[in-house]
Amino acid sequence: VQLQEWGPGLLKPSQTLSLTCAVYGGSITTTYYYWSWIRQPPGKGLEWMGVIGYSGSTYYSPSLKSHTSISRDTSKNQFSLQLSSVTPEDTAVYYCARVPGSYYRYGMDYWGKGTLVTVSS
User: Fold this and answer.
1) Residue 93 CB coordination number (10 Å)
2) C-alpha–C-alpha distance, residues 22 and 74, integer Å
3) Is 106 a residue whose pLDDT tops 90?
4) Which residue of 16, 33, 46, 63 has the fewest CB atoms within a 10 Å radius of its CB?
5) pLDDT over 90 percentage in the chain
6) Alpha carbon distance 16, 57 (integer Å)
7) Quick one: residue 9, left, alpha or beta (phi over 0 = left, psi -120 to 50 = alpha)?
8) What percent helix, strand, coil does the chain show, rounded to 5?
């Protein structure tokens, strides 16, 4: 399984960040897999943002829920992240990853390489 994420490298404050993750070698609708977004700000640890499950259900970090949305396009085997009203604090490397199992907070087994997003005026 391979995951590849992409999106704009630079945003201005208040804009909406849109990232997409393509999955190769496995279907995003296969039972008991969740597809997650994680980010890592410079010099900080990983932050779990949310997931979309095989059935399309979504779960979000409580701290980000108000301005985060995860969706999917099953015809393209891709899932996406939207983060609205970004600030410089949203500057981070953003990763997509797969979670195997029946619980969406289990550990990830496959990761994308990550994409750097910088928010700056």
Assistant:
1) 16
2) 10
3) no
4) 63
5) 94
6) 22
7) alpha
8) 5, 50, 45
* Residue with more model confidence, 41 or 106: 41
3-state SS of 28-75 is CCCCCEEEEEEEECCCCCCEEEEEEECCCCEEECCCCHHHEEEEEECC
What pLDDT digit, counting tens, does each position of 49-59 carry?
A: 999 999 999 99
Residue 37 pLDDT class (50, 70, 90 cuts) = very high
SS3 88: helix
pLDDT band at 101 (very low <50, low <70, confident <90, very high): confident
70 with 80: CB under 8 angstroms? yes
Q: Helix (H, G, I), strand (E, B), or coil: what is residue 79?
A: strand
Beta strand pairing status for 110-111 and 92-100? antiparallel
Over its C-alpha atoms, the chain yields an Rg (Å, rounded) of 13
Please tell me the number of Cα atoms within 13 Å of 61 on its side-chain side. Answer: 15
